[in-house]
């Protein structure tokens, strides 16, 4: 049964709430309103839906405007006006805008949501249906399949929002999400994606980089700190005007305890820093930067400065790498030493061994040889009766 309540905190603009069980999703949802009149309207509406469902009535007709009347443009307008303003990260706002624009360049805004999956169109001579029209057209525009999959993930979120919001009393603008997820979903399958080939650090490359006599001491220090912490470039720099909360300051570091507060897991505007240990070599360099060099922050520069210095380092050493490859280096060093993808993930503040294996540290030959040795050792033990 639906129920009404009022938030105790008077600071909320929408204080009046109705809690109810979503008739389609089967999950509990709470809608908030600015006045009691709309709260009561929603409560009576949901109570009526409950009554119709229990008595076998036509609750779907009562629940919402027929889905075929809802267009892509209406779904996107709901998302732009209701959800995007709640986001604090400007980049995320722009990203969602780009995702929606990518769809309306292919499907007109007045396209009914229910027609998307059944639409047919010839793209580059081939007949495509539904989201394959979108995927094929985006490929012709030069977009990568991984990029298209990423946009489809965001579209799943956008349409899911319309399932749970908008419409009568804010209970949902559409009945079903037109973007399917899972193994039989609309994304390109793994077998259809190009193989990932992350940069592999060989012993020769590592020595050429760190033992170069052409690099100034400060450059070597930056490389050592960057690699041994294993954070992203924009979380290493002291200036980041687009994401100020990602700037690295001295108050994030405890030199006495040898600890640092870094972001862990997937990055977002709501990212939270967590405590991680620092290697003594890193502590030694950071102490020098703070106490001797008198830097006002660990790396008193922005991403542009760091990128230029890395270009200079590449030119001097002859090692062609990206900033992110330095993050990969820590993961690969850890995987080689421990033969453990989970340890490699933890080493760079990630949570997924699978992600690390695909993007950072593929299973090394050293680990495969180690596993071969362990298998041989166990086989010998079994045959000798020592198992």
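^ structure tokens above, recovered residues below v
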């Amino acid at each position: 049964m639906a129920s009404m309540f009022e938030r105790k905190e008077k600071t909320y603009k929408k204080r009046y709430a109705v809690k109810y069980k979503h008739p389609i999703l089967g999950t509990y949802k709470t809608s908030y309103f600015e006045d009691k009149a709309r709260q009561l309207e929603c409560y009576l509406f949901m109570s009526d839906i409950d009554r119709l469902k229990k008595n076998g009535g036509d609750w779907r007709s009562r629940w919402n405007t027929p889905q075929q009347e809802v267009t892509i443009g209406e779904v996107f307008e709901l998302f732009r006006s209701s959800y995007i303003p709640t986001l604090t990260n400007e980049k995320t706002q722009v990203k969602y805008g780009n995702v929606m624009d990518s769809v309306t360049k292919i499907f007109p805004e007045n396209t009914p949501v229910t027609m998307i999956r059944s639409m047919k169109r010839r793209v580059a001579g081939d007949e495509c249906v539904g989201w394959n029209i979108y995927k094929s057209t985006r490929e012709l525009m030069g977009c990568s399949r991984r990029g298209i999959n990423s946009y489809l993930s965001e579209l799943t979120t956008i349409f899911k929002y319309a399932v749970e919001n908008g419409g009568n009393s804010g209970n949902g603008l559409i009945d079903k999400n037109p973007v399917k997820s899972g193994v039989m979903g609309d994304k390109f399958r793994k077998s259809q994606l190009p193989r990932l080939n992350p940069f592999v650090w060989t012993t020769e490359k590592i020595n050429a980089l760190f033992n170069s006599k052409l690099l100034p001491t400060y450059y070597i220090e930056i490389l050592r700190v960057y690699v041994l912490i294993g954070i992203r470039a924009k979380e290493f720099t002291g200036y980041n005007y687009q994401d100020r909360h990602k700037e690295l300051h001295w108050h994030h570091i405890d030199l006495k305890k040898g600890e640092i507060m870094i972001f862990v897991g997937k990055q977002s505007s709501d990212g939270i820093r967590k405590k991680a240990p620092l290697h003594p070599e890193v502590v030694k360099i950071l102490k020098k930067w703070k106490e001797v060099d008198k830097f006002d922050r660990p790396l008193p520069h922005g991403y542009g400065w760091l990128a230029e210095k890395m270009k200079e380092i590449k030119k001097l050493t002859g090692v062609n790498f990206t900033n992110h490859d330095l993050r990969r280096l820590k993961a690969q060093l850890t995987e080689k030493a421990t033969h453990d993808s989970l340890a490699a993930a933890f080493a760079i503040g990630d949570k997924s061994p699978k992600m690390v294996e695909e993007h950072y540290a593929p299973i090394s030959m050293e680990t495969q040889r180690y596993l071969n040795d362990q298998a041989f050792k166990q086989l010998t033990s079994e045959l000798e009766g020592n198992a």
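The chain has 15 helices and eight strands.
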